[in-house]
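RECORD TYPE: protein structure
NAME: Transcriptional regulator, GntR family
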Amino acid sequence: MKQMRLEQPKSLAEMVAVRLRQAIIDGEIGLGESIAEEKLAESFGVSRTPVRDALIQLEQQGLVVIQPKRGSFVFSPTAEDVTFICEYRKMIEVHAMKFALGRNKGELMARISDVTAAMGAAMQSHDAVSYGKLDTDFHQAFVDCSDNPYVQDAYQLVSGRIAALRTHLTRPIEHLRQLSFTEHQKLVELVAAEDIDGFGRLMDAHVDRTGEIYVVALTGAGEDNDQVSA
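PREDICTED:
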């Protein structure tokens, strides 16, 4: 009889971290907002210890900042942070696509095609929340299908911040959402054609445009400018 292994159940701290991470990404807790351990513990029905451990986990992912004698806060990115995150995205997502193309093209094509179709449906129904989540799923597919655990672990450290920026700093407007959707469709076509150079150029432009939108949102410049998830 083959040896059978049981998966260890998630600890309370892990469960709290997962829920709190999603709350930050979904915009339930604002950027820079204070996180009260006591209130969280009461809300989750746990002691403060797993909450404190969860906050440490989220600090390692860059979603939370813990300041001694002041407390814990949701991260509050600067314009420079946005620039660095965009540079990181352009580097890792393009290379992840190359790995995925060589190892899992069929799975990658299926995933990004399905997600793009769902994005189209969300756009038609004016569901900006679902569109943003699907946008995250689209870019995550390149990393997942890379089959490189080091790339996946590295991306995991910033993926929460990337998703949170989409939620907190974008306000999808119809014609710009259409531009975002068109770019995602084109990215799918470039993957299908194995046009790595073309994919890299479009991904660079796609992410750069996103970064510009985030910086405008952070600085308050051009408050009437249209914004879109990307």
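COMMENT: Helices lie at 12-25, 37-44, 48-60, 79-124, 128-144, 149-169, 174-192, 196-219.
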